[in-house]
Amino acid sequence: MARAEAPRGRITRGTTNVNRLRRVDRWIAAQPVIRTADDPLVVDLGYGASATTTLELRDRLAAARPDVKVVGIEIDPQRVRAANAATRDGVEFRLGGFEVPLPGNRAAAVIRALNVLRQYDETEVADAWATMCGRLQPGGLLVEGTCDEIGRIASWVGLELAGPRTLTISLRLAGLETPSIVAERLPKALIHRNVAGERIHELLGALDRLWATHAPLGVYGPTQRWLAVVASLREAGWPVRGTRARWRLGELTVDWDAVAPG
Ligand SMILES: C[S@@+](CC[C@H](N)C(=O)[O-])C[C@H]1O[C@@H](n2cnc3c(N)ncnc32)[C@H](O)[C@@H]1O
To answer: What CATH architecture applies to the domain 22-161?
Structure first.
């Protein structure tokens, strides 16, 4: 009998929190693949010390795609045992790593890996991305990123089989001082690149300048101010994706090529 592959990766801190991934879940739920996938199998890779965010992901996606199945994958066997005690319809938990083991060797429509690579080295990112992307269905999506403890500051990379496509920043606008607060919560591939000469540094600088420029619109609320920032960014030539409906949420999505490390 063939021996199962050892999970790829290593156990890291299991910090998680109720509702902290709401911003990324809301974005995933709006991606076309959620509605169009023939096999709506979604993976939550590295769910941490409790199964909470996996169960939340299932509930949020089921609103858009009622037959969605979510598989939580963790590299820590104790966390898999604990999660299995909390399982329910539409969700299962498995031991594994970046190789993304799935029942019947099926592939995933979406893999969400949030706050996982943060505890790895920057040099490990490309291999982890390639391994996870290799487990996607055609048209599938890997969402890899980071957020703060309570989910008010988040950013993630959207990847397809062929590699990274987008960077999304999502911020709570109420009380926001400067958009570059996201610098502390960038995906691992970018967090060490927020230095002069790198495009992510240019983007965060442009966001801060425009946030200051449009400060007078704050009298109409932070959403109006943010909408003006995103519109100005687009006019300045940044490849901004999406519509006002997304920007109103405090989101900004740009093409990955515009911010990829030099
Ligand atoms: C900080 S927790 C993140 C929990 C949750 N995703 C969140 O954002 O709230 C990171 C978890 O990822 C797990 N992990 C790290 N590397 C992994 C890998 N290669 N495969 C599966 N799980 C992994 C760790 O054991 C840890 O429980």
So the answer is: 3-Layer(aba) Sandwich (3.40)
